[in-house]
Q: What sequence folds into this?
């Protein structure tokens, strides 16, 4: 049961808005470390906590009010120059934002968050009292019950006083009477056992970035975009009317050239409108990636501090837009990559100085739209990756055998980090390096029909690029035929189509291959991959490329390219099939998931590092 | 006692808060409500449209509630408009500041529809005197 029955809508709005606000506060906090005396920044942060507190008060989330109130007071003192900003103070504040974020997660599950940790409150209180001459009334957190009623006479008395005398000095006596019970009522409310107060552990919440909140199910859309959708659907309605009229005419036997030309025109227009509408609808789902990026400066900062490194995370292209579902699914991989860059990528300040680099390292996170793809890059200026070390490591861990390993070039060695169970650090830190990372990252990116690539130069740094389609809703495909049935393969993987000349097929270690422009590519027959009996000799080869392997997919013939909407298959999930779609003539076309198709095949073959070996014994 | 047809302007930078105030007003039967996300937007609306009552948050970017209040009181067209200030602080100096600047009323978050009604009632009482 929800603790907030009847308020779900309001709570949703509050959470959406305050979560953004809190991320913004987090970023401002990171900036504040660089410019501790920036009044505007202090003001903004103050206002952030103040606003969240106000909203939480109305929703009766007293635990959040308590913590925001203290933090807000702290910033009030900071902005008035009553308190200096120290790194200890900063840690306490960052912990507090972490706790508030945790409460958002609890709230989003419809539960009331527990009272904040007594230690944190004590730390906030002592910070508040810390450098003050008089620690009087430092923590007047408003109680959940509307304490507001108490100030009714307050206002009247004061207002009268001001209105008559124009000097505030006349009023204080009257005010003190009212103010006192307010404070009392409040001190009781949180009921914190002071005895339990303990110093806040320094590394309290390093993981909050990883905490996966349930996906948001509301979206905020620019009204201009929504109007566009409305407009286009109206136009489509008009065109439909036109077609209805034309149908009546044609059914009545009017087959004049003019009628048919009008029909042709109307259909062309419908065509145009539908694709415009698809685009417009897609745009309503597009969100700036900045919403995701804004969480990372804090993440990088916390991690760097924990590791004793100096790292600056520079973000560019946050306005780049991406499908909402993709943004959500990108979080975990990106968190991992940012962590990796800070943990493994860049060196400690001492190490950097010794090799003549600036002590502060730079991690860049950028997003950019390139054609119909979004490219996200994480670049660090650290020590880079050592292909030899990676190769040795993979052999040591038994992930690949020595023979395979020696056959890899430098670029392929870098790809080894994507193998399940690979981790370059001997010591497992609590930050990263459990070896669960990169293979999961790649799997997640591939699920989004994306690609991930690594470039690394020793001593200079590493760049990881992720390339993603703009949306998952519409997939450009190549329709091919095998066994007298059409299949669709994602166009993103297709490099070119070649006719298969039987005499060009060469056997390399018993596997059929074709040499295309000096590149030896394995030949895989679609019918065999599907375990179907071939009905004829394949005539065409589709040169396919995925993350690090290229191969030729042999098909009977091909139909052409198409933009399709994938419908997932309910209940059944045949191997290698991502879903189904309808072709123009109304027949069902299976959309193939090449990765799945190939992985299954490789697993059946042998145990280890098949993703690098292109193992393939299928007869052609 | 409160004319339900009065036109209200709710000023707050936090849209959730605007919605809360709107809901509370609705409970009191007041539905003719417009919103503004800060003092600047509010002032523009006040100068171009007719309003009967302003409910404004104190703490906002660009132009705060108190700055809006001063601007409203300084404008010959607007200076008699009832102005209810919302804040999270029950601090004496804040109340004095609001009163000095000419606020008609002062309400501390969080509040209920009943409190809001009572505050508005007081404001209209003093207006009709």
A:
């Amino acid at each position: 049961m929800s603790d907030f029955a009847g308020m779900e809508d309001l709570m949703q709005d509050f959470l959406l808005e305050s979560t953004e606000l809190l991320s913004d506060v987090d970023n401002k906090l990171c900036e504040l470390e660089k410019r501790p005396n920036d009044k505007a920044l202090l003001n903004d942060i103050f206002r952030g906590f103040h606003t969240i507190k106000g909203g939480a008060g109305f929703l009766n989330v007293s635990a959040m009010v308590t913590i925001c109130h203290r933090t807000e007071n702290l910033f009030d003192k900071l902005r008035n120059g009553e308190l200096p900003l120290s790194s200890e103070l900063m840690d306490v504040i960052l912990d507090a934002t972490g706790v508030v974020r945790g409460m958002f997660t609890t709230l989003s599950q419809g539960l009331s968050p527990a009272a904040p940790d007594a230690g944190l409150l004590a730390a906030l209180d002592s910070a508040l009292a810390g450098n003050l001459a008089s620690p009087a009334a430092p923590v007047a957190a408003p109680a959940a019950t509307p304490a507001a009623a108490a100030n009714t006479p307050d206002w009247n008395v004061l207002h009268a006083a001001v209105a008559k005398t124009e000097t505030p000095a006349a009023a204080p006596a009257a005010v003190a009477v009212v103010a006192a019970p307010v404070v009392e009522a409040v001190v009781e409310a949180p009921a914190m056992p002071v005895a339990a107060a303990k110093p806040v552990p320094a590394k309290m919440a390093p993981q909050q970035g990883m905490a996966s909140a349930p996906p948001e199910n509301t979206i905020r859309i620019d009204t201009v975009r929504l109007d566009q959708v409305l407009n286009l659907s109206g136009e489509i309605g008009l065109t439909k009317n036109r077609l209805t009229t034309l149908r009546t005419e044609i059914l009545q036997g009017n087959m004049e050239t003019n009628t048919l030309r009008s029909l042709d025109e109307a259909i062309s227009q419908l065509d145009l409108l539908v694709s415009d509408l698809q685009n417009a609808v897609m745009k309503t789902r597009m969100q700036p990636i900045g919403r995701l990026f804004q969480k990372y400066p804090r993440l990088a900062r916390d991690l760097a501090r924990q590791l004793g490194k100096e790292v600056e995370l520079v973000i560019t292209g946050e306005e780049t837009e991406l499908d909402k579902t993709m943004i959500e699914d990108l979080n975990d991989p990106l968190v991992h990559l940012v962590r990796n860059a800070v943990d493994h990528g860049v060196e400690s300040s001492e190490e950097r100085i010794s090799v003549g680099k600036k002590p502060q390292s730079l991690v860049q996170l950028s997003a950019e739209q390139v054609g119909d793809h979004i490219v996200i890059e994480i670049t660090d200026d650290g020590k880079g990756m050592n292909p030899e070390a990676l190769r040795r490591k993979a052999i040591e861990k038994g992930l690949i055998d020595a023979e395979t390993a020696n056959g890899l070039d430098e670029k392929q060695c870098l790809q080894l980090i994507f193998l399940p169970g690979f981790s370059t650090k001997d010591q497992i830190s609590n930050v990263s390096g459990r070896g669960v990372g990169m293979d999961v990252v790649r799997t997640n990116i591939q699920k989004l029909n994306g690609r991930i690539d690594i470039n690394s130069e020793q001593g200079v740094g590493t760049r990881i690029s992720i390339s993603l389609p703009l949306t998952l809703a519409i997939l450009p495909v190549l329709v091919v035929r095998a066994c007298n049935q059409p299949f669709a393969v994602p166009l993103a993987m297709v490099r070119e189509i070649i006719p298969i000349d039987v005499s060009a097929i060469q056997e390399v270690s018993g596997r059929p291959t074709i040499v295309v422009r000096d590149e030896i590519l394995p030949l895989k027959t679609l019918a065999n991959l599907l375990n179907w009996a071939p009905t004829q000799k394949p005539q065409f080869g589709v040169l396919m490329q995925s993350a690090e392997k290229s191969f030729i997919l042999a098909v009977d013939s091909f139909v052409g390219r198409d933009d399709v909407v994938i419908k997932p298959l309910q209940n059944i999930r045949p191997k290698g099939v991502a879903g189904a779609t309808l072709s123009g003539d109304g027949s069902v076309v299976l959309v193939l998931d090449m990765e799945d198709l190939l992985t299954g095949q490789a697993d059946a073959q042998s145990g280890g590092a098949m993703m690098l070996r292109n193992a393939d014994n299928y007869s052609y | 006692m409160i004319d339900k047809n009065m036109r209200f302007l709710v000023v707050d930078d936090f849209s959730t808060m605007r919605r809360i105030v709107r809901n509370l007003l609705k409970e009191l039967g007041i539905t003719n409500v417009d919103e503004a996300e800060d003092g600047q937007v509010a002032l523009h609306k006040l100068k171009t449209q007719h309003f009967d009552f302003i409910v404004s948050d104190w703490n906002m970017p660009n132009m705060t509630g108190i700055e809006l209040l001063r601007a409203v009181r300084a404008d010959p067209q607007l200076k008699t408009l009832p102005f209810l200030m919302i804040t999270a602080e029950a601090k004496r100096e804040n109340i004095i500041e609001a009163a000095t600047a000419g606020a008609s009323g002062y309400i501390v978050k969080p509040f209920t529809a009943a409190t809001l009604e009572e505050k508005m009632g007081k404001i209209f009482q003093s207006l009709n005197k």
Notes: Chain A touches chain B at residues 10, 13-14, 17-18, 21, 44, 47, 50-51, 53-55, 57-58, 60, 142, 146-152, 154-156, 158-159, 162-163, 166, 168, 171-172, 175, 179, 182 (CB under 8 Å).
